[in-house]
Amino acid sequence: MIIDKQPLPDDPTPEDAPPAYDYPSSSSFVPPPPEKDAGPSTTSPTLSPSPSSSSRLSPPLVSKKPSSKGKGRWFPSFGQSKAAKEVEKTVMNLVRDVVKVPDAAAISVLRNCEEACNSHSLSFAALLQEQTIEGHSAIYWAIIKRPRDLPGAAGLELVQTMLAMAAPLSAATISEIRLACLQASDEALFQRLRHTPAFSPLSGKDEILLGANIPPDDISVSEVAGNQGEFVAVFRIPQFQRRMRVTKQVTLEFIARGRMWCLAFLESDGISCSAGEKGAWVVSLSLMEHSPPTWIDSHLLIDDTRGAPSTPSSSKASAKSFMGMPASKAPPQIELRLKTSSQLAPPSANRHHDFVRDISLPLRKSPMGDSLQFDGCTFIAPDGTLTAKLEARLAKPDNECIIC
């Protein structure tokens, strides 16, 4: 007959408690594998970094074998729950190290973390979106810390990998990504993220219309030297007429002068008195979340593609001769002035203040604005692309608004 071994009198460990594990003091220790009901322990995916990262992340320790004392598991789910919690803690510490000091091994460390989470039935996507690193998510810090002059894991690849691993993104995470891009004044990264399905998926109609061979909307922003917050944004919008007729709107988002902007072309619903009657094509300028209020005085300019000047930036452009026109006469141009009588603010701003939420103007306010709806319009390129330019300054409107 086999007699169970009696525990030592001074041993404080409960007879059937889960096995203990030793961990190094740094944040890069390795969690134990899930405990088995019986038999020797087996090897599970570890969180050990690749050899190239050994200078920063310590190698994993080998976990101790589970103790065989006792007659059976005490609360069967307790041991596995503890192991999962240790995995989660380790993963978050490793992710914190990755965003704290990004290096060439960052991507492989993230993949190891993802594999370990999968083996313990944890959602690595959810952990990446948790705002537990100084009140923010790992994605937020990866954007804030991104060196703009370095390629690879220290640049765009790390952020894009995190986004792919974290998909689908929650509304809170998307909002936080916008905040990070705004606080870092990283317009280049923001435009790349806008073309990422995980961050800014196309609507079903846009996806069918644009297909895989048509380039996405292209936005280029320049902050002009000056003391009134001047900037110029150029937009290239493929399939403009077709998208307006089918989806009823084209939305363009960009960062300039410490604010996130939205320029939209849309079909009026007939409710807003400033947007014209129902069905009219309208242009709208607004601020997005996280942006402080500001005065704005701007011009939206669209040149005739038959004779667009080489620098189509201003309504004061030099005259050119085209299509038999006299040299003294400037090429035709659609020009719409977008200005406010009060400060412009995002929809989330305090409604007790006298803020303007958006500036909306029917395209017909310009003599040739309505022509954008017609087939064969000379303001739209033969391939269907509309090119428009917004010249703006963050100041109270005056009689003239000349940026360039």
Bin the strand percentage.
15-25%
Distance between the termini: 97 Å
Tally of extended strands? Answer: 9
Quickly name the level 1 CATH class of the domain at 202-314 and 329-393.
Mainly Beta
What topology, given as strand order, has the largest sheet? 1-2-9-6-7
The H-level CATH homologous superfamily of the domain at 202-314 and 329-393, spelled out, is: Apoptosis, Tumor Necrosis Factor Receptor Associated Protein 2, Chain A
- CATH architecture descriptor name of the domain at 202-314 and 329-393: Sandwich
- Rg, rounded, reads 29 Å
Structural class: alpha+beta
Give the rounded overall mean pLDDT: 78
The helix tally amounts to 9
Based on Cα principal axes, name the global outline.
Answer: elongated
Note poorly predicted spans. 11-31, 34-44, 49-79, 310-327
Helix content: 10-25%
Spell out the helices and strands N to C.
HHHHHHHHEEHEEEEEEE
| Main β-sheet description | 5 strands, antiparallel
The name of the CATH topology of the domain at 202-314 and 329-393 is Apoptosis, Tumor Necrosis Factor Receptor Associated Protein 2, Chain A
Biased composition (Low complexity): 18-29, 40-65
Region (Disordered): 1-77
